[in-house]
Batch of 2 targets.
Target 1
Amino acid sequence: MNMAVLRRLLGLFIPLLVMSACELINPEEAIPAYLRVEPFTLTTTATQGSNSQKITEAWLFVDDDFLGVYALPATIPLLVTGEGTIRLEPGIKDNGIASTPEIYPFYQPFTQTVTLAPDQTVTLRPTTTYKPTTRFALIENFERGSHLFPFLVSGTDVNRITIVGGVDAFEGNGSGLLRVTTDAPLATIATGARFRDLQASNINVYLEVNYRAEAPVVFGLLAYNQVGQASNGDIVFAAGFNASPTWNKIYFNLTQVLLERQPAEFQLLMQTALPAGENGQPAPAAANIWLDNIKLVHF
């Protein structure tokens, strides 16, 4: 091969080599598809109580591959194209704590088959219901003339829960009101009914509560070691919420406290106290706690 031919071949080969090297160093970036996920809505039946919910996240699966947890609403870039099945598991804050996101075991996942394309957005408006196997040991919506929390463990008649309506009601005609004052600064209230065997089929037991509060509240159990025991039970606290000027919802996970305590039966318990003054301010003369849609759920 003469030198002229060799130089011509090198002139063709070297630019191709340089172009290939550039493509390896700076490869063309894939263009994502986008999934827009709107907040969940919950549909309930007449026997399941309110459709109030606080689903804060979606746990995303695409064709059964887990792709992350996203605060709602969310626009999610996906390096996935073509037809696929989207599954969104409704997520909550366990015990209202931001650092403990969990899939709520009693809500149905939302699934939909979509076609994803680069630089295109698919919008989902997920819906959910309670799973058919969900059981409700207690539903208290304070819509009757009486309620399921008449048991006064400590406090006075001033502290007994009353039913209020009008602007004080979360929804419907009534909500429960628990009040503490300087004359009755501590209140511990429990259900009249006792519960047992809620974990016989599955370990998950949760308490759902809508609330607006001027003082912190803790929830727990009045636990009994023997069925039908006449003496007072042991008070076991699980979790609580802080004061909130607006209505909020919380999901209390009672699973661990029930596993640890293993009571033969128990009453649901709530306790509050008149707050002390802060930053040199005098303590308030009274504090109100409004409650609604209390549900004790299990499988």
Note: The mean pLDDT is 91.
Target 2
Amino acid sequence: MIGRLRGRLIEIESDGSLVVDVNGVGYELQAPLGTPGRSSAAVGDELQLHVHTHVREDALLLYGFATGDERTAFRTLIGISKVGPKLALAVLSALEVGELAEAVGTADAGRLTRIPGIGKKTAERMVLELEGKLSTTTPRATGGKPSGRVNETSRVLCDSLIRMGFKPNDVDRAVANMEALDRPLGELIRDALSALSP
């Protein structure tokens, strides 16, 4: 498997794919839009890319990233059901890793739906499954006051439970009685389901 490439950037395609010459061999890599800029490289310059090697029955594909954090985020994204490499690249083309972590940390599924190819259900699944897997600098509340993240998490939690078929009044009551709403959303949903079970 190829984990890293260092060579001369010789081509940038309109879709963001790159061709990097390494000792006379041109490697074609799919990459998030803006990768050369984040690597401070233009055509003709040397650059180093962190590489994810993706093996399929009919192809061996290389994905290049400016940083190790981007590659880690990509690998985490493609581990989510119905999120393939193409969609993962679209996410990382639209949002830097820190911005993605912020959207996940604040349960901002709406921000993710603005990315082409991501619908509401996929965005909500991404928020659930990425929770705690990306570093975030989102501040938590102090002084006993609920933070914006807690309010947003409460709203997303209620919406998720109502879509599962629970009555809004029952959901509101269950969520109001829950403590520590700054926990991962998946954990909150499990606790809420226990409270709502007969």
Note: The beta strands are 4-12, 18-22, 25-29, 46-55, 60-65.
